[in-house]
Input
Amino acid sequence: MDIFFQDIRYAARKLMRTPGFTTIAVATLALAIGATTAVFSIVNGVLLKPLPFPSPDQLAAVSSVGTNGEPTSMSGPDFMDYRDQSRSFAGLAAISYGNANLTAAGTTPVRLEVAGVGAPFFDLLGVKMQLGRGFTPGEDRKGAAGVAVLSDRFWRTHFNGDARVIGQPISIDNKTVTVVGIAPPSMTYPRARDVWTPFVFEDWMLDPENRGAHFLSAIGRVKPEIAIESARREIASIGERLRKEYPRTNTNYGATAIALRERLVGNVRTTLVTMLGAVGFVLLIACANVANLLLVRASGRETEIAVRTALGAGRWRIVRQLITESILLSFLGALIGGALASWAVDAVVAYGPRGLPRLDSIAIDTRVLLFGAGISLLTGLLFGLVPAIHAARTEIGQMLKESVRGSSGRRASQRTRGALVVSEMALAVVLLVGAGLLIRSFTKLIAVDPGFRVDHVLTFSVSVPEAKYPFDRNKNQFTDDVLDGLRRLPGSRAVAAGLSRPMQDEGMRVGFDIDGRPPAAPGARMVAEIRPITPGYFSALGISLERGRLFTAAEGRWGPPPVVVVSQEFVRRYFANENPIGKHIAIGISHDTAASGKTSVKSGGEIIGIVADVKQRGLKEDPSAAVYIAQAMFPQNDMAFVVRSDADMGTLSAAVRRAVAEVDPDMPIFDVETMEQAVAGSVAQPRFYMALLAAFAGLALLLAGLGIYGVISYTVSQRTRELGIRIALGATHDRVVRLVLGQGMLLTLGGVALGLLGAYGLTHVIRNMLYGVTAADPITFVGVSAVLLGVAGLASYLPARRAARVDPVIAMRAD
Output
């Protein structure tokens, strides 16, 4: 142990005597280790960390499956069949997401994110309340007293963490409910809700006619003796029986059960593992760079090593001392890198892309710290071992002869340094190609026409409580009053409302029939996305009319025969060879209303116009077949308002809040943003991944450039005598520059060739992240090659120019 500490003290002294070398090496390692640790912390939080529930591997998400094989929501009757017919689960609980308003006398109304859940929900998850209790059997039945469980964050933010809130009534959507529990801080499922309330099945939800209405999710706990795969097969078999029993609604749907963690992670696993592999390349490049620095440093310590060897130090003793120095360097780099990683993780958690799952689980925890320590030890061994062995293998006689030039040991060292540079270049090429592909992909993505104008548009949403606005006429009157207030705002040019606005993953996919055509066979019914809107919607968003006409003000209300406007994609799918204008469609949705004097109203009507396709869910998504209907015919509790205005958007935000408050002071607004912000948010994830990989590629390029600069500089210093003789014999400045430059470019060409082969094989991993470009995009491959050759040419030219200025007399005298 004394020898170990002696080696550390000696290594520290040696590093302190070369502050320039130590600073460069530690900075290089700090950047690489910090980036690697930060990315691992994201992978750990999202993919590796277990869910904060007892026996989390027994939890499964149960859902329907569409024709594309992707999980989707289910209907109420389907859920009941899954629950009642399954024998693999200890229980299933339905989940419905929504928004609600918290109101109290004398306070500002607050918008809540609410999850309606079945009574067994908390028991199935194994969640123990920090205060109070969860839901008891029967509290999710019709007519039961209203109760609620608050999230820890919401409780502390809005009730100051006061324990006396338990048992107290609060008003949610103008319904009085009693707070019965406070969830623990770790309870952020599903989707970090503010409040959980019992989900009560209304009669219409279980109506056999509404088996095709998909709006529910479900969670289940598999029995301990049963594997999730067995539960999945059982649920799939139930789905198959329902497909045969109800062909009209279930022909295109199956069923599945997926481990809850897998369902939460979604499709980001491959992307995050790819990012971890990319930052691993950066770490390898950093190791190669520092190894090159150590090889240069070792050449200057030959006399010292020779003396120590002559005094009896064995080769293992020399190797151990040099490796101790490299490990000390790596731990210094790890300390600084850990601080950089902590800062980066905090930034990701605070400003991470919208939709990244389990964002709240990302942190520097014990596993991340152990990873950082392990990676620093491995890094120290990785970049220190080769230089240490090279130094220990050099013969004593050679090291003691100061006049020796071009010894076999130095030639071997030079070959090793060249191989390291080629490896750096190859790894840098792979990263640069990956980054280049993502950059080109992102450029193409943001250039996509969304189908509407994003400038000078502010949007916001409201959630109208059913208890306060129970009938269509109430909702329609609220909408009209708010729109009138918005029209009066200074600078207002067009206003509208709808079920949703572009870049929101909301809408209703329902079946429809075309008058004059025979009914479709079961499972082959035509399906469209229904978008209830007010007449000014198209002008407010700048959606162009392609043919026909738009709604009139009168057609946006009850009374006239119903009419609809359809999208170009709708026409392509269902009217490819005929003119749709004047045709009538009947949409398969109905609802109770008190506005028309009827107990039930069917939607649909005559097609009067065709508008441009709109990227409703994101720029990367294909346009859907959309049918726009008058919102007055099918008003919803959740609405999005759109205001096109010449006013400043910041000023307008406050103005629209006042306009809504004048209509209903208990109505909070949320999701207030410009359409430019909405579009930017829709590409937040691809932007994040592009920026991350581009940062890694930029760092790799810098390190590779420094690596080749170091090799050529060292070569020039070793060839000073030779270059002096060449100049003395008449070699011109340009000839010497070409000689030295050629060596650097030869190494670069080798690295680029290997890198392009590697990139061609590895970039297919990110093909699912690309849009509008292929994984073998020739422009990217050629561009990256040109950039690498340019950087390498500059890195080689600087020492080459210095070599051409060697004074032959001084060179000969120095030898």
